[in-house]
Amino acid sequence: MEMGASVNGSNSSVRILVVDDEELVRDFLREALTRRSYHVDIAEDGKHAKNILKEETYDLILTDLKMPGVTGLDLLRFLKAHQPETQSIMMTAYGSIENAVEAMRLGAFDYVTKPFTSGEIELIIDKALEHKRLINENRYLRNELSDKYGFSSIIGQSKAMQEVFDLLKMVTPNHTTVLIEGESGTGKELVARAIHYNSPRKDKPFIKINCASLPEGLIESELFGHEKGAYTHAFARARGKFEQADGGTILFDEISEMASGLQAKLLRVLQEREFERIGGSETIQVDIRVIATTNRNLEEEVEKGRFRKDLYYRLNVINVHLPPLHRRREDIPLLAHHFLERYSKEYSKQVTSISEEAMSYLLRCDWPGNVRELANRIERSVVLCRNCAIEPCDLLMGNRSQSGAVEDIPQIPGTSLRDFEKWIIVKTLNSQKSNRTKTAKLLDISIRTLRNKIKEYRDNDGDEIN
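Given the sequence above, the corresponding structure tokens read:
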């Protein structure tokens, strides 16, 4: 066995094993590859190569097809069993093309016919290594997604959330349609992604459709795709969301916002799992799992004539209801510390705890914006916090004077929750020069909620709030 030395360079971490019984070929490849700074090892036949592979791992193997004893095909079978992630390229003479095709069936990335130039083999090697890089990257991203959207990412120990977890564990392994109901900010999309990335479809696409923002006039094209020339500016065939999601999961986010005309078309796809592109006659069949979310009560929407009853029954196979945060207050400390850890790391802040007074305030809030509102509040507090612990003044976004003191902050204890809420709204309104849109966005509440609160303060307290 001849061994090539490891060399320094940008490719020095890439390990390549060259296997060939012809010394001239071995020397040619060793020179060409070490010139590009690869780490190159040499084996003079298949038997020696197997002995090396029992002790070492490689990114790529270049192997001759016909060798005495252990052939190139034998070596590929060994690789498939013991080092399936290693890329391989078969080197063969012109008369052995059929065997080269067999090699690719056994997992070889490609084959090259002898004689070849250094430029030809280097091009194939670059493609093989890029292919390996993409495989590793996709595996890493899938693992990242599985971690990010695992059930552990859904925080909650309350009885209400344990019931949700129990249901999800039963639902996730199969392909049934799921309807997720809950107020805005309760984590409906997070649950939908957790269902997908913990299911047998996790390696297939997850396609999200925001029903409230589907472009008017292009809705059908967006969902079903179109053929070239189907309408003005349709210069090429386009695949719609259903085709893109084939084999995976499609999420209809806030499906209660979908136009009535489109509801009928969607119903047909859900029933038949087939459709035609706009301007086309070919029937396209898809294998998809459907998940829908809504912050409205769809049963009430059906009674009011705003949502199709047949579509509602088609979607409501499994119903997952996410409770609002104020109905699972025992989860607030868990969530608050989870977000504290996340944002402290994100903003490189040494904020490690939440004071008892601050936690008491968090537990007393109504949280109309639910978990999303709590996350936003903790994020702002981490950014504003000047110490290692979040205090009520950080949560309340108080204006600090030059001395560092917080001005006009209500006292804790001693102030009612309503007065705290009023103080926050008035302070935020003043900071935004009475701009209600910006104020509502900062407070993570709707314009309607803000308007009602201001009216309440005027009617009950006689306050003139702009």
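The radius of gyration is 31 Å. Try to locate this feature in the token string yourself.
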